[in-house]
Amino acid sequence: MAPNDSAETGGTRGTAVGRRKAARYIVPVAVAGVAAATIGLVPALASTGDPDLPKITAQELIEKIAASDTERLSGTVRISTDLGIPSLGGLADAFVQGGGGGESADPQERMTELASGTHTLRVAADGPDKQRLSIMDNASEYSLIRNGDEVWAYDSGSDQAYHATADKSARDSGGKSAHPAPDGVPATPKELAEQLLEAAGPTTSVTVDGTARIAGRDAYKLVVKPKQSGSTIGSATVAVDAENGVPLKFTLLASAGGKPVVDAGFTDVDFGKPDASSFTFTPPKGTEVTEADDAKAQREQGKGPDKGLGKGLDGLFPGVGQSGAGDRGAGDTKIIGEGWNAIAEISTPGGTGLPSKASDEVPAEAQQFLDSLGDKVTGKFGSGTVFKTRLVNALMTDDGKVYVGAVTKDALVEAANNAS
Predict the structure, then answer these.
(1) Highest mean pLDDT: which of 112-116, 155-159, 207-211, 259-263?
(2) Residue 306 to residue 26: CA distance in whole angstroms
(3) Using one digit for the tens of pLDDT, what is the confidence trace for 76-105?
(4) Closest to 365 in 3D by CA, of 92, 30, 34, 33
(5) 160-165 and 288-291 as β-strands: parallel, antiparallel, unpaired?
(6) Residue 205: is it exposed, middle or buried by C-beta count within 10 angstroms (0-12/13-18/19+)?
(7) What is the pLDDT of residue 187?
(8) Yes or no: is domain 5-305 CATH 2.50.20.10?
């Protein structure tokens, strides 16, 4: 067993991980979408026995993750998510399509499925321009396939396909994986771990807490915890392959306790070269194909899923790693506080709050979902609604201000009062 070794994340600035910029948010209904993005496509899972491995410090383990150059793998991933919200099911359509209904192969829409329940994925990668991810169902399969410039998504249940061409900036991303998932969504365990570590700062404790056996591989356990009280996040544990530095397991716990919010990981993994056929796809005869440009145009017209649903860990950690309060983020976002207790203050376009039930601006299914999440609150700021999950909470005031972060409801109300 490796002993508990600690490291302040301030000591990691020489590595590939660094401070992150202010997060972007889409509110209020993107609370669920942000949670889906945080899950991304991360892997992790069950262990059998704790191997006896050489001692390693947290700093050394972080550097091992950053230095890992493994680009070939294939395996099975099992993801379980419990955000404390009702199962999205068909409600995703109500949010992202305005209740339009119907199936779609657009990854901007389909990745929200990972926001709740348990899912089995098959993953494969062969370098930065060949990846495949398949969400397995009892009677169907949804696959995302990247092969060079070509990106395909296919839903065998509805016989729908989505086609895109990878842009040059993604191909020339300096070695970063230009994966086929929605913007900002980590598509590998390494990407998720790096985002987590980039989110960490002086308010974070990082330790090595023993070893584990994951999918037949020896691994070290890296534990990231907030030093501050008041965050809804308890800890995140990343099991790191002892040989090649690839993260194999990711577990996210809420400070309130209970089962993991996210428990995702490899049940089997192979670091050999995947079969080339894994990355080829031809739409079956009769398949309805949607081009990415058409889907984008629909989103811009308010007819399709909002691109803001894929923002990685940005929504979970609004100001972690940033020094000082009042930093301006993207657009009209202001960061209040610092570290894990940071709260993003957002001014909504037009300065209006949630539409009323009588306005018919929100589909009935979406309104029901919002009501199930929301608590009415009042204070010096006026009145508003707090939308809650086990991890991310958001206060939307009736005059159109939004306060969101991985903090308690009381912290959001206090922030709104202080800003009044």
Answers:
(1) 207-211
(2) 9
(3) 999 898 988 755 444 444 443 333 334 678
(4) 92
(5) parallel
(6) middle
(7) 46
(8) yes
Of the pLDDT bands very low, low, confident and very high (cuts 50, 70, 90), residue 109 is confident
Which token pair is 203?
A: 């308010």
φ, ψ of residue 259 to 5 degrees: the values are: -70, 165
252: closest CA among 264, 239, 236, 240?
236
Tokens 């309805």 belong to residue: 288
Block residue for tokens 């491995």: 53
Residue 253 tokens, joined: 């716990």
**CA geometry: angle 79, 84, 89, nearest 5 deg:** 65
Amino acid letter at 107? P
Residue range 382-403, pLDDT digits in tens: 999 998 889 899 999 988 899 9
Instruction: Map tokens 């800003």 to a residue.
Output: 419
Backbone angles phi, psi at 218, to 5 degrees: -75, 140
By DSSP bridging, strand 5-8 and strand 117-126 are unpaired
Contact 151, 108 (CB under 8 A): no
- Output the CATH code of domain 314-419: 3.30.310
Task: Write down the pLDDT at residue 299.
Answer: 60
CA distance 79 to 39: 8
Domain ranges in the chain are 5-305, 314-419
The reported pLDDT for the residue numbered 351 is 58
Identify the residue whose tokens are 């090595």. 208
Spacing of C-alpha 140 from chain mean position: 24
Q: Which residue from 412, 176, 198, 202 is spatially nearest to 317, judged by alpha carbons?
A: 198
- What is the reported pTM? 0.73
Domains 5-305 and 314-419 share a fold: no
State how far the Cα of 385 lies from the Cα of 378, in Å rounded to an integer.
9
